[in-house]
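Running log. JK asked me to keep both predictions on one page so they can be read side by side. First protein, sequence followed by its C-alpha cells:
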Amino acid sequence: MLPELIYLFILSYFIGSISSAIIVCRLLKIDDPRSQGSKNPGATNVLRIGGKKAAAIVLIGDSLKGFITIIIARYLELGLLDLSLIALSSFLGHVYPIFYKFKGGKGVATFIGSLFAIHYLVGLFFSIVWLFVAKILKVSSLSALIATFFTPMCFYIVTNNLSATLVISAICLWIFYTHRSNIKRIISGSEKAI
C-alpha cells in the first residue's frame, strides 16, 4: 500500500493548498481575506468581512479538503496510521499552500474534516467542544485551541492506536503554533470575539 499512500499524500497536499477563502471571496466579490481583518484566509475572518453565508461556504470547503482524500484512502483500505499521515498532508497544504507562496490559514477546519473522515466520533467531539466553548466565551481561536488540546486523548480512547495518535498530536501542536499570535492576544485580553 506504500505507492497508494505516497500518491494520496501528494494529492492531499495539493488539495489542501487550494484556498476556499480566497476563491469564495473572489466569486462573491468580497475583499481578499489576506488584506482585511485578521488577514487570515480562513472561515472566521471571512465571517467578519463577508458575513455568514460566505463563511459557511469557506468552512465547508476547507473541511472537504481534509475529508476527501481520507475517504479515498479508506476505500483503498489503508490503515489508521496512513489515514493520519494523509490528514497531516492536507493540514500542511492548507497552512503552507504551494499556490499562495506557502502562506495559508491556520488549519482547523481542514483538520476537522480529516477527523470526521477518520472517525466521526472524534470529529463530533471536536465540534461539540468548539461549539460549547464558543457559546460561553465567544472567542473562536480559544474554542479551537481548547478542542484541539483534548483531541489527541479522545482520538486514542476511540482508536486505541498510539502511532496514529502521535501523528494527530503533532497536528494539534502545529495548530497551537499557527495560533501563536492569537494566544498572545488571548493572554493580553485583546483577542476579538466571534
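And the second, directly underneath as requested:
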Amino acid sequence: MPIHKLMKPTILLLALCPALHAQDWPMWGGTPSRNMIAEAKNLPTEIKPGTINPENETVDLAETKNVLWVAKLGSQTYGNPVVGGGKVLVGTNNESPRDPSQNGDRGNLMCFDEKTGEFLWQLIIPKLGAGKVSDWEFVGLCSSPAIVGDKAYVITNRAEIMCLDLNGMANGNCRLVQG
C-alpha cells in the first residue's frame, strides 16, 4: 500500500475559550518583528483535543476542553495557520479533498471562518511535473500565508508568489484571465 494511503488526516484545532477575544496572528511570528510574543491574557492552561472517530474522522466537541472548533485538513500540514480579518488560513495537501472534481496530489490553501470554523474557500495548486526533484509527492503547500488588510500572500508549492482576496470569490472578484 502506498505510504500516502497510510497517513492520517491532520486536524486543525482552534483552541480558544469561546468568550476569549484573540488578537489577529496574520503571519508567521505574528508581526514583521517575528518576536513570537502575543499580547493575549487569560489563555487556557489546559486543552483537551478529544478523540478522532476512525469511521468518519470527526471529533466530538463535547469531549474537548477549551476547543472552539475542529477542521479536517490533508494528511500533511507543515506551515502554521494564520489568523486575520475573521479568517483562518492554513496550507496542507489534498488528501481530504473538499472538491470531488479536484482529486489527487495537489497543494491546498484552506480558509475557515475564525469564529465558527466553517470552511469558506480553498486555493488548489497543481503539482509540478518533475516529481521529487522540485515538488515532493503528498507534501502540499508548506508556506505560511501572510494576511495584510483584505489580501493574503502565499508562496505555492510551484514556487509562485500569489496575492489572494481574503474573501475568496464571495465578493464577486472572480475574473478569468486567459494567456
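Observation for JK regarding the second prediction: The domain at 3-165 is CATH 2.40.10.480 (Thrombin, subunit H).
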